[in-house]
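ok so for the tutorial part 2 we go from a plain amino acid sequence to predicted C-alpha cells. step 1 is just haveing the sequence, like this:
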Amino acid sequence: MREITAKEEYDLNHSMSAAQHPSLGTRIKYLQTQDKYHYAGVRKSPDYTTSGSNIIVGEGTYALYSDSSGSSLIEVFDLDGGTFGLQDSITTYIYCHYDETSGCPVVTSTTDRELVVSTNFTNSIPIFTCYNYQNVINVINWKDEGLALAEKHLLREIDTDRFHHVSGLQTTEYGTRNVNVTSGSLYYGVNRITIQDFASGSSSNYMYLISHDALNVWTGSPVTQYNNTSYQGSSGLVTLTNSQRYSVNWIFRVVSDNKRFVCIVLGTGDYKLDEALGSTVPPILPNVAQTQSILVSRIIVQKDANVATNIDSAFDIGFSPTSLDHNSLFGLDGGDFALNEYYHLTQDNYNKISGSSYEAIFGDAVNYTAFEADGTMIMSGSATVWEDLRFPATAINPVGAPSPMGFDTTRIAFTAATGQTQTIAVVAQLPHSWKIGSTIYPHVHWQPTTTNTGSVLWRIEYKWNDLNTVEPANFIPLDVSQVASGSAYMHQLIGWTISGSAISNISSLLTILVSRIGGSDSYTGTALLKEFDIHYEVNTLGSRTPLSK
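step 2 — the prediction. this is what the C-alpha cells look like for a chain of 549 residues:
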C-alpha cells in the first residue's frame, strides 16, 4: 500500500469519501475512522484514589501524536495507569507520553513540569496535577481536553472576555454634551468585526439613558446628551445635592452589525470629585450592557456643567484621571472653598508658617502644636498641657519655722493642730517644660481627722525670682479656707493662684511657707497635710539648652 500525499491527507481530514480516492483502498477507511480525532488530549479521564502518599490511577483513553512536532497522525490508546508515589510538599504531574524511541505510549509521572509542556501537548498530555502535603493530596483533573477543544476554547473566550477590544472606540464630546464614539474593531468569540462610529446628535444614531427602580426593573429614555444632574439611586434617578457634586456616565457601545447604538448607565453616588474619580462600574447593569455591549468610557461632569470634567477611556487601565481642579478635591484638611483657598492648611495656618520659623503647624491660628526648623515642638493655646510639681509629705525637709508641723507616722502625713499656727517650708525650681510667664496653681492635699465640719484656714507665703536676680526681701501671703467634709480622713484639695507674668526664663526659684492658721479657723481637730503640689502649664518637652528655653 502506497503512502498518501499531503493533499490526499488534507482531503481526508476534510471528510472526503473513500469513493473519491479508490486507489487508497483500506488505508482510506482506517484514516476515516481516525478523522474525528482532531485534538491530542485525554478522551476519557481515568478514575483515581489516594492512599497515604500515593495516587492510584485507573484506565483512561488518550489521543496522542507519535512525535513531538505534531506532524504525525493522532492515535488513540486505552491505557492502565498505576500507583504513583508523591513527594511531600512537591507538585507531581501524572501524564501520558508517547515514546518515539520505543513506539509505545505510557502513563507516567514527573516533578519537572517542562517534560509535560515542552512538546506543546502533542505526544505528552497532562492527566492530573497533584500536590501532597503530609499525605493530604490535592488533585487537579485535566479531564477531557482532547474532546471538542476548539469549542471549549470558544466558550472560554465568551465567558471570560465576551467582547475584546482591538482598536478605536474612543469617546469625545462635541456641541453641548453630545457623545461621539469613533469606529473601532473588536472580537466577539473568534469573530473580528469593525463597528461604525457613533454621534449622539446625528440621525440613525440611538442613545438611551437606562435606569432602574426599586425592583431593579430597567427602563430606557432616548437622549442626545450625557447626564449632568443625576445619579442612580436605589429606586430611580436622584438629583445631585449641590454644584460641587459630580455625575458619572458609564458609556456602553452596543455591538451590532446594523445599528449605531449607545446606552448610558449612571454612577450610584452623589459624588464629590475624588469619589467620582475613584468610582467603578455599577454592580447592577441592564441586560443589554451585560450581554450585547462593550464599555467604552466614563464621563465625569460637574452638576449643571456643559463640559465634562473628565472623559476616561475604558481601555486605559484604572480610569486614570487627566488634570484635576485641586480645590474641588474633597476630604483634604484646611482650605476654604468660598474664599478660593487652595491650601491643605487654612489661610491662617499658611500665613503663620510662612511668616515664622515654624516648619509645620497642627491646629488653628490660636490653638496649635508647631515644630520649628530644629525640630523643637511648641504648644500654644489649648494645645498646652498641665503637670504637677509635687512635694509629698515624705519629701518636705527640713520643716519650717516658727512652729513646725508634727508628723503622723501611721498616716504618713504632717499634722497641723488646732489653736495655733504651724508651718512647713518648700523650695522649688520651675521645670524647663513650664510655659514661661504662665500662671501656676499651688494646692494642698489634706484630710480632717474628725467628723467636725469647721473650716481650716490654709496660708502660703511665697517669694519667686528669676535666675540671676536678687531674691525678694519679703514673702507674699495668700489665704484660702475650706470646710471639713464631716468624714474623718476624707481626701480634700484646696489651692491658690499665682501669676508668673514677672518671670522671664527657666530655672526660676519658688520659696514657699505652707501653714495652717489654727488660731483663726473653726475646725476643732487636727488637719493632716498629705502633699503640697503646684499645677503648672507645659508648652514644650523641655528647653533647648540647659539655661534657656
